[in-house]
């Protein structure tokens, strides 16, 4: 049962053999395979730039020696709040790359894919100073609101009881253009939760700042869409359309155009083929090329961090919200990429995830980088 707070055209990127599906054989964040053959090593261990990289500009390192940066959200002045999954630290990073600790989140129980995950800044931060985090406690995933004015204070659980597991905890937080808070959740490896409207697992949630169902929600609770396996990316384009990046099992990863009350098919469908009952994705990848986590919109495109795929995907959007041909960038150069966000000046920030137990840490990892789209 849901418990409230205490206070369609698919763009085929490449064709390939379909791998055997199954959560136990291929969990959402799959282990990194060998570096792509097209990547050439340089003395510092980073891959050489390929010609396809040039349209996005050259990334610049902002910060180094972080530990699994998971979420990024921007304050009005341009500084970013960055979560570290396994340390439970909330960091403040300036556009010049200065890193300080904003606080440490109490109650975080990191293990597997759980820990301190998403972060969101209130659209009215200048007035209310509210910051929201999504994290795994010992018994559930939950969303907690803080007041942040030089330090974190007044923690208030606004939504608890989100299922947690060793895998598939979702965790992304973001405010939509409608002013409401959205959260992505995973089905924790229990596939039936994704189709169960009595559970918050395998869903996208929409709520007020107090964790209550937002007006207009389709089911009279906090659920906005369902049939998701593990969503770790949320973004909106300039027209207000909502998109989500989603881990597949063994066949296809996805980007979905999210609509009110829609069913995205998991576990009945992976990739396309939903017919009239389910909503098909607008983009799919073979799982070897993506494991899509962070998602952002900038410069007319979606930008997706790929974990197993070890690249940044740029997905051009058409005026009607459909997707053009995705372009892979920086393949193999930085390793696993997770956090992706658009700064207030229009630049793109993205982070590596090589210290997450599935990557191969390089000198300076984990790091935050920035580029101009």
Describe the structure.
The chain has a domain at 67-287: Neuraminidase (6 Propeller). The chain is built from one helix and 25 strands. The protein starts with 10 loop residues before the first strand and ends with a strand. It has a five-stranded mixed sheet with strand order 1-18-17-16-15, with no helix packed on it. The chain has a four-stranded antiparallel sheet with strand order 2-25-24-23, with no helix packed on it. The chain has one helix at residues 125-128; strands spanning 11-12, 60-63, 69-74, 80-84, 89-93, 99-104, 116-121, 130-136, 141-148, 152-162, 173-175, 181-184, 203-207, 223-226, 231-236, 242-246, 252-258, 283-286, 292-298, 301-306, 311-316, 327-329, 337-342, 348-352, 368-371. The protein is globular, with a radius of gyration of 19 Å. The model is unreliable at 1-28 and 30-54 (pLDDT under 50). The protein is an all-beta fold and 373 residues long.
- The portion of residues assigned to helices is under 10%
* Mean pLDDT over all positions: 88
CATH topology value of one domain:
Neuraminidase
Number of strands: 25
Counting helices, strands and paired strands, the structural category is mainly beta
């Amino acid at each position: 049962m849901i418990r409230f707070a205490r206070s369609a055209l698919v763009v085929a990127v490449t064709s390939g053999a379909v791998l055997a599906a199954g959560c136990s054989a291929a969990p959402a964040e799959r282990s990194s395979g060998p570096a792509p053959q097209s990547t050439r090593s340089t003395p510092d261990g980073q891959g050489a730039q390929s010609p396809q990289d040039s349209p996005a500009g050259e990334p610049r390192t902002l910060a180094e020696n972080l530990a699994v940066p998971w979420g990024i959200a921007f304050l009005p002045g341009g500084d970013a709040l960055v979560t570290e999954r396994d340390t439970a630290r909330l960091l403040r990073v300036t556009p010049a790359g200065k890193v300080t600790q904003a606080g440490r989140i109490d109650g975080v129980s990191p293990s597997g894919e759980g820990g301190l995950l998403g972060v969101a800044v209130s659209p009215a931060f200048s007035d209310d100073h509210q910051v929201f985090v999504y994290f795994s406690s010992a018994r559930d995933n939950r969303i907690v609101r803080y007041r942040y004015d030089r330090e974190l204070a007044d923690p208030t659980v606004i939504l608890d009881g989100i299922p947690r597991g060793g895998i598939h905890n979702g965790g992304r937080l973001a405010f939509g253009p409608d002013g409401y808070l959205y959260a992505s959740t995973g089905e924790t490896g229990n596939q039936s939760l994704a189709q169960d409207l009595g559970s918050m697992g395998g869903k996208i949630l929409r709520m007020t700042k107090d964790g209550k169902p937002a007006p207009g929600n389709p089911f009279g609770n906090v659920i906005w869409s369902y049939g998701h396996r593990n969503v770790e990316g949320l973004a909106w384009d300039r027209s207000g359309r909502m998109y989500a990046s989603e881990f597949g099992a063994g066949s296809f990863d996805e980007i979905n155009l999210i609509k009110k009350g829609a069913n995205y098919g998991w576990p009945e469908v992976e990739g396309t083929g939903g017919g009239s009952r389910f909503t098909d994705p607008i983009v799919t990848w073979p799982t070897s090329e993506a494991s899509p986590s962070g998602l952002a919109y900038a410069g007319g495109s979606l930008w997706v961090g790929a974990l197993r795929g070890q690249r940044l995907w740029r997905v051009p959007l058409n005026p009607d919200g459909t997707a053009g041909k995705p372009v892979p960038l920086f393949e193999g150069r930085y390793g696993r990429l997770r956090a992706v966000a658009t700064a207030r000046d229009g630049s793109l920030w993205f982070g590596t995830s090589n210290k997450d137990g599935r990557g191969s840490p390089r000198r300076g990892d984990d790091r935050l980088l920035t580029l101009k789209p």
